[in-house]
Amino acid sequence: MTSITPPPSRIYLFRHAAAQKASSGQKDFDRPLSDDGYAAAEIVAEKAIEKNYRPDLVISSTALRCRQTADAIRRAVSPSTEFRYIDELYNATTDTYLEIISSQVTEDSVMLVGHNPVIEHALEALIGHKALVLALPNGFPTAGLAVIDSTSSGWVLADFVTQ
Fold first, then answer.
1. What PANTHER family does the database record attribute to this sequence (predicted)?
2. pLDDT tens per residue across all 163 residues of the chain
């Protein structure tokens, strides 16, 4: 398992918002957000900005629903915030998510926009099983945003933003 030491000192894990069901012949990768998903992504992005959660870098899966979720953040952050889209986040392992985060050594805060169950597993790897179950007894919801901070004793879940 990859360990992460600051930087970054803050990690945001944003699960994509609710997507439409696949239409006949449509690839899972190409599923767009549902109307409710669009609304949820916008609400969570607005709440995050109200709390001054402003990542230096946003890294998103290239799957359509993740790119659309990342767009909600793009509209809410400063124009200088860098956005990257990475194919490897789709169907990735927990180690891949953690390796991508740990390789960001020049940014103080990094946001990953990705998929479940891996985004939940990445959160669990950072904060531990017990803290995950206490914070999210029903699992990591769509359009959920985990805010994880580095402390002297390790990573802690500082906040969880939902619609």
1. OS09G0287300 PROTEIN
2. 567 877 799 999 999 999 999 889 999 999 999 999 999 999 999 999 999 999 999 999 999 999 999 999 998 888 889 999 999 999 999 999 999 999 998 999 999 999 999 999 999 999 999 999 999 999 999 999 999 999 998 999 999 999 9
What predicted TM-score, i.e. pTM, was given to this entire model?
0.95
- From the list 8, 2, 38, the residue with the least C-alpha distance to 150 is 8
Distance CA 77, CA 34 (A): 23
Phi, psi of 60 (to 5 degrees): -125, 150
Residue 4 falls within a domain, yes or no?
Answer: no
Q: Directed axis angle between helix 35-50 and helix 64-76, to 10°?
A: 40
d(CA 22, CA 151): 41
Residue 47: CATH number of its domain: 3.40.50.1240
| 150 falls within a domain | yes
**Listed residue (80, 67, 68, 73) closest to 12, CA to CA:** 73
